[in-house]
Amino acid sequence: EVQVVESGGGLVHTGGSLRLSCAASGFTLSSFSDHAMSWVRQVPGEGLEWISAINSGGGSTSYADPVKGRFTVSRNNAKKTLYLQINNLKPEDTAKYYCAIYSGGIYYDSVPTDLAYWGRGTQVTVSS
Prior knowledge:
Radius of gyration: 14 Å
Shape: globular
Strand content: over 45%
Helix content: under 10%
Largest sheet: 7 strands, mixed
Number of strands: 11
């Protein structure tokens, strides 16, 4: 069974930075490097917001408009880990951040679709 565990969230002031990590394990029929991955966030009472994705090889990335220029997604396939570097945090970035794994090697922009595996999330809170 594939397991996905996020870490790195916390409470920061406006303008601060965080680096989120996502460790995946338990692949049997495929490997970590076969799958594109995504970060999705959710504010309580609201829907899921797709914010970033990276293809299986790490050479292609995509970002939602609200985070472009501030967030950077990357992956280390040897370590089976996905990262999200978040800079210049704003109060509106406050949310629970989820790591999710696509069923295949490509990602889909803008909507959290075809995401086969999810972590439990890590909370990011930005104080003004």
